[in-house]
Structures are given as C-alpha cells and as structure tokens.
Write a structure and sequence with these properties.
The complex is a heterodimer. Chain A is mostly helical. Chain A contains 13 helices and no strands. In chain A, helix 5 runs antiparallel to helix 6 and helix 5 packs across helix 8. Chain B is mainly alpha-helical. Chain B is elongated and about 75 Å long. The chains are: A mainly alpha, B mainly alpha.
Chain lengths: 311, 307
C-alpha cells in the first residue's frame, strides 16, 4: 500500500512540472502579443516596449521560464497587471466560495446520479431505463452557462423562488443563494454519474458470481444490494477524477452567471482588464488541484479495489 | 446503339463472378452501418445533423433577413408573422442570426475536431507503435494537458494573445487532442500485436507505411466515435467562450454570443436566449447520441450487454 502511494506521488511531481511548463510555453508559442492585446491596436511602439519590459517579456524565453518556475516554487503566482496585487492573495480571498460550490455540486450529482443510474440498470430497456438515458443525455449535452441561464429564467424570473445573483447573508441566505448554482453544476454531473453507474451496475449484474448467488437461492434484493451494488459503486469514484476539469470549468462559468464571488468571477473579471497574469495564476492553481484530486481518487480507488495495486 | 449491347455481353461473366463474391464481403464491410441503422436515437441524431449541416452550408440563402441589419422600429419583439423568432434589442432578426450562427458554430467545431483528430490520432499511433521512451514522454505530456481545465486555458490564451477565430480553433484543438491520442494509442496497441502487423514489419514495410496503411484503417472505428463525441464538446466550448466574450466576436453571430446578448436583456427578450440555446442543445445532443450509437455499432460487447 505505502509502496503504491509513494510511487503514485512520485509520478505526480513530474506531471505538475510538465503541466505548469505547458501553461508557460503555450503563451509563448501560440501567435499573438500580450502587450498589443492589453494596450490595443493604437498603442505607440514606445508604450508597447515599456509594457513588455514591465511584464518581463523582453527577456529571452529561457530566462522568463526560470523566473516563472522560481517564483512558483516560492509560492508566488505573480502580480495582477492592472492593480499590482499579488495574485495569490486574490486567489485566497476567492478560493473558499468556489470550493464550497464545487463540493455541494459533487454531492448533489452523486445523490441524484448514482441511485437513478442503478435503478435504470436494474430494469434494462424498460421505459424507466429509456427515460433515464434520455435525461442523462440532456444533462451531459447542455453547457453549464445555458442551463444556469434557463434555471434563472424559470425559477428566478418566472416563479420568483430563488435569487438570481449574489451570495446572500446568514446561513439561510447563503443556502438560498446556492441552490440554483448547485443545481446547475450538480444536474450536469448527475448525467455523467447516471451513465457511469448504469454501465457499471449492468456489467456487475452479468458477472458469474451474481448468477451463482441467484442460483443458490439467495433473495434477489440481497444479491443486488449486498453483492452487486458494492462492487459496482467502486468504479464510480473514478468519475470524480475524470470529470473534475469539466467541473472546474463549469464552476467558473456558473459563478459568472450568478454573480457569485469566487475564482470564476475573478478569472472572468480579468477578461475586461486583459489581466492574463490573474488567469495564469488561477490556471496553475486549478491544474495542481486537478492533479491532487486525481491522486486522491487513485489512492482511494486502490484502497477499495486491491486488484489495482498489483498492476 | 451497338455500344451498350456490346458492353453488356462483355461484362456479364465478369459481373456475375463479382456478384458471387461480393455479397458476403459487402455484408461484412457494412456490418457497423447495419447495426447503427438499428439504433433509432442514432438515426434521429444523424438526420438532425444532416439537416443542420445543410442549414449551415446554405445559410446565406436561407436567412430571411440580413442578420446584421438593425431595424430600430421593430426591436425586442416577440414572435411575429414577419419575424418568426422575434427580434433582438437592436432590431435584428433572431431567426437569421440563429441560422448564420449555426454556420460559425459548426465550422469552428468541425475544424477543431478535424485538427485534433488527425494530430491526436497520429501521435497516439506513433506512441503505440514505437513504444519505449517516446511513448512515455508523449503520454506524460498529453496526460498533463488533460489536467488543465480547457475553458480557463482558452480564457488565458485568448486574453493574453488577443481573440481571433484561429486562436479559438487552436485552443479547442489542443484541449481535445489528448483524449484522441490516448484512445488511438489504446486501440493501436491492440492492433500492433496482430499477426499481419508482424508480417508487414518482417516484409520490410517502412514505419510510416505500416502506421498509415495497416494500423490506421483498423482504428478508424474508435476515431470516428471520439470525433463525433468531440464535435459536441467543441461546439459547447466555442459557445461557452463566445458567451464569455472571448470567442467569436460580435457582430458575427454565434449561438454563444447571442445568448450573452440575451442574458443582458433577459427580461425583455428571453427569445434571444431560448432559440440559440435550443439550437445549441439540439446539435450537442445529436452528436452525443450519434456518437453513442456508433460506439455500440462498433462494439459487439456492449450490444450484448444491452440485451
């Protein structure tokens, strides 16, 4: 066990390193000029040159890269171009809100997706199954921004049940404000969960040991809930690892739509000021977060599924 | 007049010989298509997409109004006989804009998926075929790209480098490529162990030739599945970025930037959200159901499970 975890940790370190390098080099390799993008087409050559010096873009790429990696190792994500505030500070102020929304959405997604997916697998090709497959197809196909706006249109403007913007005050106010954003992300995640739980359960039900258990005369409910369910739930954990990048992208756009404070609003706010330093900082943080989540998912998967360790 | 007669008499034995051989081969070759046709949802998706592609290609002829022309007298109207889907707050015809938007969305989606499928497919096959350190390095890099949330990556790149359709397409292609490469690698690894690949190698076939002539045709099925599913993702990402104002720039309409305009005037013109949103959702669902149906058609294992 310890051996597996150490090995997995050692693999994660180069992955983090390569990922942050990709983020750096993609900004340098792809065509375009940050200084020109910030100052606009009409900027004078002198102003452009000044800004390039200020951003350190006039240095050779390898020097920029060493500065960048060195700063990251010291936990420095750079400064905002427009305000000069350290990006890490801006992220700290907004981090909690995004994490709470993401965790609430994952929980809602599991709560809806897993039972419905299993129900659907128990009656393959019945009308319930077809209905579930249809619904899950809608949830996996709808972009979060569209679902969020449609929920606002229906539940805030037409029915006037939930607020459409802000974070709210007090416990009830906060929960009340969180319901629509959580459903936006949670429903989309539940679609993925339904499909995965269904496939996983179907595969398990067709296994030989289930047939043996049934043949031995064990009641069907016991077979399903004690034997099949337990084994079929294990792979569903991995969905969280697979889907975490989509969830983060979804959280960014959902926060924007509901005008909630958070990393998404921070990132989208940076579009107006062309402040790519903030975006780069957020991206580095999210990428590291994704790698850590995947690491945790892999480790917990290996704990519940001992078969993995040998490979 | 004598020519057709001559042709017929000459070709008869040949065509008869072909007839004897062809049916079993033909049935085998189109087994996937036959399986696909049985999926009602898949066919439904295909029909919708054929219609949508036609609309996108012929957009310039189908639009009832100039999508950029502002008609201040008739602005922010609901559905009327003149403007079937109403007008936006600048008095532009929503139907015309949704039609032209389909062109932009499908074009960006198609080009990004084409680039990512070709590049990813080739990288995946190369990694599987060569193996060793090349495989390790390529896979580690692709895995790292997968750790980057695509929407934020797109935001950063476009904010830093300026927005253009080319940049948009490149960002989406980079984001989708690792998925294709991993899948192509997995399928190619299976194919690589087959006898005919070993035979081709021992006959002295060049690497590129073996990859293109022997491995590539055998992973076409999985590539088709993933590119269909990726069309749905690409169109959604384009719409999301355009919604955030960093994708396709106004006044060129796309479904994403139309919905953004609609969101600003959510109380007065909900139609500006609903109609482009509906178009986006229908196309996205169609690609997904079609992708699923193609996957089932290519994978007898899943079909067996369904029954």
């Amino acid at each position: 066990m310890i051996k597996y975890v150490t090995r997995r940790l050692l693999v994660a370190i180069p992955t983090i390193f390569i990922t942050i390098s990709i983020i750096f080099f993609s900004l340098r390799i792809l065509p375009g000029d940050p200084a020109l993008a910030i100052l606009g087409e009409n900027a004078s050559e002198e102003a452009l040159q000044n800004l390039r010096e200020q951003l350190g873009l006039n240095l050779p790429v390898w020097q920029q890269y060493i500065h960048y990696i060195g700063d990251l190792l010291r936990g420095d994500l750079g400064e905002s171009i427009s305000s000069g505030t350290p990006v890490i500070q801006m992220i700290q102020e907004n981090f909690g809100s995004t994490i709470i929304l993401s965790i609430a959405s994952i929980m809602l997604g599991c709560l809806i997706g897993i039972p419905v997916g299993i129900l659907s697998a128990l009656r393959p090709n019945s009308w319930i199954d077809n209905f579930v497959r249809f619904i899950s197809m809608i949830w996996v196909s709808v972009p979060p921004f569209l679902l969020g706006i449609l929920l606002i249109l229906a539940f805030s403007l037409k029915l006037n049940l939930f607020p459409s913007m802000g974070a709210g005050e007090g416990i009830w106010g906060t929960i009340h404000h969180m319901i629509l954003p959580t459903f936006t992300l949670g429903l989309i995640l539940s679609g993925v969960m339904m499909r995965f739980a269904r496939a996983s359960m179907l595969e398990e039900i067709n296994q030989d040991y289930i047939r043996t258990a049934k043949a031995k005369g064990i009641p069907i409910n016991v077979v399903i809930f004690k034997h099949a369910l337990r084994n079929s739930l294990i792979p569903v954990i991995t969905v969280i690892g697979i889907d975490i990048t989509a969830l983060i992208s979804g959280a960014v756009i959902t926060e924007t739509i509901f005008s909630r404070p958070g990393l998404g609003s921070l990132a989208v706010g940076a579009i107006m000021t062309r402040d790519f330093a903030i975006l780069q900082g957020c991206l580095v943080l999210f990428a590291v977060l994704v790698i850590i989540v995947n690491l945790l998912v892999d480790i917990s998967y290996s704990i519940v599924n001992p078969k993995i360790k040998q490979s | 007049m004598s020519e057709p007669v001559l042709k017929e008499t000459v070709s008869t034995p040949v065509s008869e010989a072909m007839k004897e051989q062809k049916p079993p081969k033909k049935r085998h070759k189109h087994a996937e298509w036959t399986a696909f046709k049985k999926s009602r949802l898949g066919m439904f998706g295909l029909v919708i997409l054929v219609i949508m592609s036609f609309i996108a290609i012929a957009a310039q002829f189908l639009m009832p109004y100039d999508p950029l022309a502002q008609d201040v007298a008739n602005r922010a109207q609901g559905m009327t006989a003149d403007h079937w889907l109403g007008t936006d707050p600048l008095g532009r015809d929503i139907l015309s804009r949704v039609i032209l938007g389909s062109q932009t969305s499908l074009f960006v989606g198609f080009v990004s998926v084409a680039i990512s499928t070709i590049a990813g497919g080739f990288i995946g096959m190369l990694a599987a075929y060569k193996g060793g350190w090349l495989d390790d390095i390529l896979m580690r890099i692709l895995e790292s790209i997968m750790m980057i949330p695509l929407l934020l990556f797109g935001l950063m790149i476009i904010v830093a480098l300026g927005s253009s359709t080319t940049t948009l397409i490149m960002v989406i292609s980079i984001g989708l490529m690792p998925g294709v490469a991993r899948m192509a690698r997995g399928s190619a690894l299976e194919v690589k162990e087959k006898e005919y690949i070993k035979a081709a190698i021992s006959l002295g076939g060049g690497n590129l030739r073996i990859i293109m002539r022997h491995i590539f045709p055998n992973i076409l099925g999985p590539l088709l599945v993933i590119s269909t599913l990726h069309m749905s993702s690409a169109i959604r990402i384009e719409a999301s970025l355009s919604f955030l104002g960093v994708g396709v720039q106004p006044p060129t309409p796309t479904w994403g930037n139309m919905i953004q305009e609609g969101f600003q005037y959510i109380t007065s013109t909900p139609g500006l959200i609903i109609f482009p949103g509906l178009a986006l959702l229908i196309v996205s669902i169609s690609f997904n159901v079609m992708g699923d149906a193609i996957r089932d058609a290519f994978d007898p294992h899943i079909k067996h499970q369904r029954k």
